[in-house]
Amino acid sequence: KCEVCNHLVRHITSEIEKVAKSQTSKLKELDLIQIMENVCDPDTDSGDWLAMFDLVGTRETRMIQKDRIGKCTEECRSIAKACEDIIGEADTEIAALLWKGTGQSDLEQKICRKMTKVCVKSPPPLSKDRRDFPFQPKTDSEIETEKTVRGMKGMKGMDGARMYSRDEYLQQMEAEVGPEEMAQQIASILGTDKKSKESKEKKDESGWAENAKKSFDRVLDIFGGDEL
Question: Under a CB-based contact definition with an 8 Å cutoff, are residues 190 and 148 in contact?
Fold first, then answer.
């Protein structure tokens, strides 16, 4: 847990710096909440960092950082669990330190040693039956697919767990947000926001819907199927 804690602090610090650079106003409490909320979930953009490590060692485990995101198998889930335990033990205190603008080295000392004491306690011995799971890097296509799915889950009118065909998705979206917003949301997720490319001529609603269908077909091509 000690290594996980140190990497967790570095990641949170890095995320805060990114947010601070991307906006002109002072860091808000909501920004901290959003960073903390998913930082230990490897199935989110904020938690992708958890899938960039390989656990190695026979007497004690070490976290070896890779240069790209891997598939989140047993080792990644173990790191995520340790991360959750650390955050759960001191979430309020961590948020308070971040709000004060505490530096990275001080955060590591206070969170990993004083608050949670994960870097004070000796790690338990490894089981003789410990199984090593090789690191499996994701392809660019797999990373793109995951980001597309995550993006679509956050789109207005796209909530729900069941599988939908293209027409069912479009019908649901159109009922919720209208054809213009529907086309814009899908194009935005795919990085082809039509606002940057549209002509000066006004498009009618049927044209918006047709653009949405074409964009959605591109999403289906990523998945290689007829449903999402």
Answer: yes
Q: Give the C-alpha separation, 32 to 26, whole Å.
A: 12
The DSSP bridge pattern shows strands 53-56 and 62-65 to be antiparallel
pLDDT digits (tens, 9 = 90+) for 52-103: 999 987 677 889 999 999 999 999 999 999 999 998 877 888 888 888 888 8
d(CA 167, CA 100): 49
Is the distance from CB of 104 to CB of 10 less than 8 angstroms? yes
Contact criterion met (CB below 8 Å) for 40 and 84:
yes
* β strands within 43-153, DSSP E: 53-56, 62-65
Coil, helix or strand for 227? strand
Rounded CA-CA distance 58/125 in Å is 10
- The pTM of this model reads 0.64
Query: 3-state class of 193 per DSSP?
Result: coil
